[in-house]
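Summarise what follows for lecture notes:
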Amino acid sequence: MKFKKIAAVMAAAVMVMSFAAGCGSSDEGNSAGGANISVISREEGSGTRGAFVELFGVEEEVDGEKVDQTTTDATVTNNTSVMLTTVSGDENAIGYVSLGSLNDDVKAVKIDGAEATADNIKNGSYKVSRPFNIVTKDGVSEEAQDFINFILSKQGQEVVAEEGYIPLDTTTEYAASGVSGKVAVSGSSSVSPVMEKLAEAYQALNPDADIQIQTSDSTTGVTDAINGTSDIGMASRELKDSETSQGAVGTVIATDGIAVIVNNANSVDDLTVDQVKGIFTGKTLTWDEVTK
C-alpha cells in the first residue's frame, strides 16, 4: 500500500513537470512564432526616434497636431548602445538604430524588400533615411568654424564615408590651419560616433585643437547650441521651426539610414513599413501575426 502511494505521487509529479515543460515551450517559443513582441524604443528628444516615428507613420495627426503613437508598453532606452544591447539580449525584441551604428550583435531586417545599406539609400530603394545635422548660432568661434570647415571638406567627408554614412558631394580641400583652443560639441548619440572620428582626424592635423564631445540627444544638442553651452550641436533630424526661430542653424554633414533591428535568433528577415508601424503602435502584439 505504501509502495502504491509513492508510485502515485511520483506519477503525479511527472505529469506536473510535463505540463510545466509544455507551457514553457509554448511561452518561450520561437521569436518568429507565437511569442509576444518586445518593442524597444528610444527616449523622447532622440532624433532617431523623431525620424523613425515620422518615416514609419508612427507619428499621426490628432486634432491638428502630430502625436507620437509609440505603444506605452515599449521599453525605452536612452542611447544607441543600450538599444543594441537590449535587442541582442532578447530573442523577441525589435528596435531601431542609426545605420552606421549597426554591429553583428543584432540583425537588420529588410524593409519592403530592400536591405539597409548606404548603396540602397543612394539608389532610393531603401527609403528610411534622415539627415545628420550640426547646429550653430551666430557668432561661431574661429576654432569651431575651422572644425566645421574640415567636416564639410573632401577630407572630412571621406571620414563620413569610411564610417558607413552617405557623404556630401564636395571637392573642397581642407588645409591645416594650426588653430588651437577648445570646441564644445554636444547632442545626438547617433551622430556622436562619426563626430568622434571627425574630431580624431581633425586633431591629427591640428594637434593643439581640443574637440570635446558630450553625447546626449538631438534636442539637447540643439538647445545647447542656442544657449551657447556648446559651440556645435548634433542633431539626427531636421530642425523644428521653434528651434530655427531662436536662431539655430542646421547644416547637413551626412545622410544616414535608420535600420530596424531584431535579435540574431529571430527568423524574420523582411518587414513592410505597415508591419513595423503596427508593431510600434501596439496593434501587432505577437510574432506569429507578422509571419502569417
Summary: The first helix runs from residue 2 to 28. The chain has a mean pLDDT of 89. Residues 130-257 form a domain with the D-Maltodextrin-Binding Protein; domain 2 fold (CATH 3.40.190). The radius of gyration is 24 Å.
